[in-house]
Amino acid sequence: MKIIASKHFTYRLVEDEQGNYVFHLVVPAVLTAAAVYEKQVILPTFQKWMVKLFPHTIEPLGERLIAEEKARAAKAFARR
């Protein structure tokens, strides 16, 4: 596995053995700051090439993926 980019404990973008770009996201829990979980997102080919061509898009993409996952988790929590 080759590390492409990382930001503290927020996310890590790696290239796996098959050549896929995989985001390892650390997503904060909905109600508590202490509970977190990690989610892996495999980027589609289009986003992989966008990241290769425009490396400055890695951070906004990571932040967007985390925000989407937090919103999904909050929605699931609200349904309980």
Quick structural summary:
Helix content is 38%, strand content 32%. With 80 residues, the chain is an alpha+beta fold.
Please name the defining characteristics of this protein.
80 residues; alpha+beta; four-stranded antiparallel β-sheet; 4 strands
Protein architecture, described:
The protein is of the alpha+beta class and 80 residues long. It has one domain (2-78). Helices cover 38% and strands 32% of the residues. The chain has two helices and four strands. A four-stranded antiparallel sheet has the order 1-2-3-4, covered by helices on one side. A hairpin with a 5-residue loop joins strand 2 and strand 3. The longest helix is centred in the C-terminal third of the chain and has 21 residues, at 58-78. The radius of gyration is 13 Å and the shape is elongated. The N and C termini lie far apart (38 Å).
* Secondary-structure element string: EEEEHH
End-to-end separation in angstroms reads 38 Å
Helix proportion: 25-40%
Instruction: Characterize the largest beta sheet: strand count, sense, and whether it forms a barrel.
Output: 4 strands, antiparallel
Please report the number of helical segments: 2
DSSP, total strands? 4
State the low-pLDDT regions, or none.
none
By secondary-structure content and strand pairing, the structural class works out as alpha+beta
Give the number of domains.
1
The global form is: elongated
Which strand-content bin applies to the residues? Answer: 25-35%
